Amino acid sequence: MGSPEEPQGARIRLPQLRLDELLEELQARLDAARGTRDRVHSLLEAVLSVGRELELEQALHSIVEAASVLVDAEYAALGVIGPDGTRLSAFHTVGVNEEQIARIGPFPEGHGILGELIRRPEPLRLAKLSEHSASYGFPPGHPPMHTFLGVPIRVREQVFGNLYLTEKRGGAHFDEEDESVLSTLAVAAGVAIDNARLYEESRLRERWLQTNAEITHNLMSGGGRAEVLGLIAERAGEITGSALAAVAVPMDDTEALSVEIAVGLDSEAHQGLVLGMDRSLMGLAFSSATSVTSTDVGHDDRISLEPPRFGGLGPAVAVPIGTGVAGARGVLLLARESGRPAFTQTETETLQAFAAQAAIAMELAERRQDAEQVAVLKDRDRIARDLHDLAIQRLFATGMTLQSAGRFIEHPEASERVVRAVDDLDETIKIIRSAIFGLRERDGAVGAGLRAQVVRVVGEAAPVLGFAPSVRMEGLLDTDVPREIAAHVVAVLSEALTNIARHAHAGRADVVLTSDSRQVRLTVADDGVGIPPEGRRSGLRNMGERAQQLGGELELSCPPEGGTTLVWRVPVPAE
Fold it and tell me: What pTM was computed for the model?
């Protein structure tokens, strides 16, 4: 109650002012509730939007965009943690254009504040980035950033990556509500990423199954071994996004592999290459009967870089084709371009399963080839038997008849003709017997092929040279090159390598042997001092004479970069 002398208006105004304050507070609470409702609605929309994506890359980009909108951040990024768990393997950004990215340089790998979340996967909120102990500044061209909010993304209890948000619009700081909203989005993002991964794995599995079916169908349709190997390399390279795919098989009676198929980037440098077991990725995989990976095949201490063949390539994996009792039948090599992600354990395991199926396909092809060879040999035996039992006996009987009849011919000229006919029959019998021997003669013993002989000669020359020459062979050398020519090839190669060891003072030599069913070509190149004008030429003369005897030629040249290149080529007689 007011005093009697207090004005009546004052008693009325005081409650009115209190009511205005209450109304303003109520309005503020309503606005806050409405803002919270809108934000929850936005969060639900973001969760639904992220969950709809099935493509992993698109899902990651959608997560970054949603995070930026929810907390009103100018810049947002999602860093994917690599297999080693210590650095980022991928970085998806929002708010930075291509021009800015080019000025900044390579994406971060996870140092500084970004690495702090990798080491300690829990939410991190900062009012000023530069004040944190892990901060060490930005590269030139990087936009200024002060406020920061980061949260980890977990997929099945494993940290997949981190969300990084900077520069809340309006100059404000990220608050607890922003952290709560972003953490909620991170949970939904983990589910979405897991779904996208499962979808991607199912699609990859389907593609591998289709490839296996295609290989099997190719075999059933009469495809040859080379065609099957080519299909294995091409499809494996396509599915894994590899720039190079190659298949090597072991060479009989040698400790070496021969690259039979190579497709993709700089495949010519790999085609026909002969690789040792100890200084090549494919050799290591074959000898250990397990997959071997490399993060950078062009700079791997385990691998010989001679001859140069890995330009522009980075991550690689070599998987043996077949294991177990039968052993490996070959090796599949896949390599991606430099800067691309390394092959994951999941990819490697999938490749191993594919290689096991490929081994079965190769075995089927070999069994069919053996069956065809057996059929040919049986047919040869039948022809040889018929020639021996029928043709030769008839010719021999005819000759005996003519010989006995010759005693009753009195005319000298007629008698002479009969004698000549008998001699011709004897010569014909010799020719047929030689043909029978050729039909019944099996292919040479294991290791007697030209390929194996070349590898053996090169291996024997390596200790004398002080290094192992590179070897590349292409064509049907063991089947299309006659033994006589093969013997000359081996002799010329041995002489050429001996000359390099004695006179060239070289540190490198390359041997290339090719055949296209019309010509055999042997090229031996070194980086030595060249051929001195006053040097002895007896070895070169012998090689030239061998070529002339077979209708071929010998060429010598000294390239501008130094060394000597010898080219010995002879024609292959038509069958």
Answer: 0.64
